[in-house]
Amino acid sequence: MNSSISSVAQIRSLLAALPGPDAAASAAWAAREPQLTKPAGSLGRLEEVSAWLAAWQGRHPPRMETPAARIFAGNHGVAALGVSAFPPEVTVQMVANFRHGGAAINQLCKTFGIELDVLALDLDRPTADFTKGAALDEAEFVAAFRAGMDAVPDGADVLVIGEMGIGNTTPAAAVSAALFGGEAADWTGRGTGVEGGALARKIEVVGQGVARHKGNTPLDILRCLGGRELAAMAGAVLAARQKRVPVLLDGYVTTAAVAALEAEAKGALDHCMVGHVSVEPGHRRLLAALGKTALFDLGMRLGEGSGAALAVGVLKAACACHAGMATFAEAGVSDKDEA
Ligand SMILES: Cc1cc2ncn([C@H]3O[C@H](COP(=O)(O)O)[C@@H](O)[C@H]3O)c2cc1C
Ligand SMILES: O=C(O)c1cccnc1
To answer: What's this chain's function (predicted)?
Structure first.
């Protein structure tokens, strides 16, 4: 698909016209699930997962044969302020590592049969320092958003989104604080491992950015305080909705990137589940603000889409149970009202 959007106003119109869940697929799921050979509800959130996949794939039974992952990379002006434990050149170096198969996300995608692609977004042009001005102008923001929209493959059974961008837990914190309020310190974590004075500096940078750009519309908050990979992830999530591709979000950075969509249009993230809750304390707070519960908590704080990729295993298991289990009638097992 070649999306033709050229303004924030057009993104807003797309958000006002998002397709909803598929009622026929949901009804078919609800008719089959109670017949399966288990006490009702005993598969817990696996049942929620297969129901959600049916509704948003628009298909019964739901399928998990062609999962895809898209990792977006960008560089950040605020990285020059010492907000990360690592230098900015690590972004481009890790993109090369992804392409050679050497990163954690490569191994997770291999483990779960996930097709992976990496999109580097103008890595030689970091965003502007958001304490001084807008991180991106409208043309830059829309170009990155469109790159994300165009990256969504047709026919994927689920889309994992992930990111790489040294310094990007700072924009994630700033976007979250500007959208949902509260103190900069409540939203700011250690990221790659900043400590002491560097953490205090990071909190100060987040506070300065929020003070400068709050009061904007949600999409302009994402433009002024975010970055190219964040804008691209938001674009990918919007296009996935249009293509009936459910989405797995990863950690703090991916969730912050797409939170502006929900703030613009309630329900815009209904086709998204959150793979894991990150160690970044702001992630838990953000999930509460969005009314979402992650599938698991493994103490991870990597990014790259790693927690979302791991959750593909759970989605595969949910589909296998719903589609493949015998019914009480087929297996000759007595149902509870036959007792
Ligand atoms: C080697 C390496 C691999 C990574 N993979 C993801 N990130 C993660 O760390 C960065 C965010 O943390 P901060 O805001 O503290 O810079 C992002 O690139 C994120 O994807 C990595 C970071 C490093 C150093
Ligand atoms: O939760 C995240 O997205 C995260 C945490 C630490 C570093 N990079 C990303």
So the answer is: Catalyzes the synthesis of alpha-ribazole-5'-phosphate from nicotinate mononucleotide (NAMN) and 5,6-dimethylbenzimidazole (DMB).
